[in-house]
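Weekly puzzle thread! Below is a chain. First person to post its structure in token form gets bragging rights.
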Amino acid sequence: MKNNKGNSTCAKRTSNVNNIDRTDGISNWVMKIKICNRVEVIRMRVPILRYMGMSAAIFCLLLCMACGMSNADPAGSPPRIALITPAGTGELAEAIRLGAEAAAKEAGAELITVEAFPSEGLTYAPSNPDFTAGQGKVKQEHLQNGTYPLSEREQAQVDAVSLALEQGASALLIDPLSEKTLSDIIQKVQTKDDNGVIIPVILLNDEFPVKGITSVISIDNVEAGRQAGQAMAVLLGGRGRIALLGPDPVNPVLINRELGVEESLAQYPDIHVETQSVCSTRDSCWQAAKQLLDQQQVDGLIALQEPASLGAADELNRRTSENNGNMVKIVGFGSEQQQLEQLQEGRIQHLIVQNGFSAGYLGVNQAVARLNNQQVQARVTLETKLVSTDNMFWMDNQKLLFPFVQ
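Winning reply:
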């Protein structure tokens, strides 16, 4: 008897049934045929199952890769830090920027520097030339006399922060114009992030008592005031009359400098502080110095901020050109280029100088540390140096006064 599948192995194995009982043989033969058919079906299904398994594995792998690409962690990108400075702050702001750029480069961070000009808008200058963030502009009316009211400059700085946040800034370095400006900025930052993440704010050069500051990078203004008072005492030989130019009853920086001057001069009973003239711009401080010197004899002027020292030097230059003599000594604060020129010419005898490069450098380091959930110092105190005509060209002082030529 032939099997229809005579060419199959199973048919060959079941063809010889002549030596057994016919009934039992037929039963066994039928059973073997069924088993062999099942074996053939299984053999056919195995490659199909293998193919299906491999396809499923490949599909899962591709799905995982797609999920990984779509859910790439944005936190892995370089942190973007914004440096916000008031308009026209000169060499100190430039030194701060250079220090911040150096630290950002070392940390692999993006730095956006924003100088807030009320009339011309805000220009972003990224430290990385590959950074493609657009420029933000805040248009405001330009005043004919070329000056800006404090309220306009304050609002421009707040607007600068808003645009920096829109550009993706994850931390801010801010040298605020006033306590009000800083308060408005802190409020804006704390309500910016919908995820509850508060953007770090690093305060530079100021000591405004505003809550919400991550870290303060500043000099010890009381100690700086002591340095100025001691320098004036030496210039006057421990005897004479002096005036303070540029104090401010509401500015913590100037209040502390004034306190330091008074503490230092308290050791010299023959030195008397005759008067205090409040002024905030170069022109107003020139007028204040003129009125002061016209009304009374003063041997020395301690100018507590840059505009005051420049205004005082302007008045002494005028008096010298009119052959009225120039016996008044000036001790000031700052390292602006015009101040250094006045120092070199002998119009200003001493300047209390801070390291702006270090302020920017340490500010970025503090911001990066906070973004990496590392410990941050609540306050970092910068050193100050007393610079005079005699030592301004020393190598260390050259690096301090001219960081942009290092």
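Puzzle host: Confirmed. Bonus trivia for everyone else. Confidence is low (pLDDT under 50) at residues 1-23, 60-75, 119-146.
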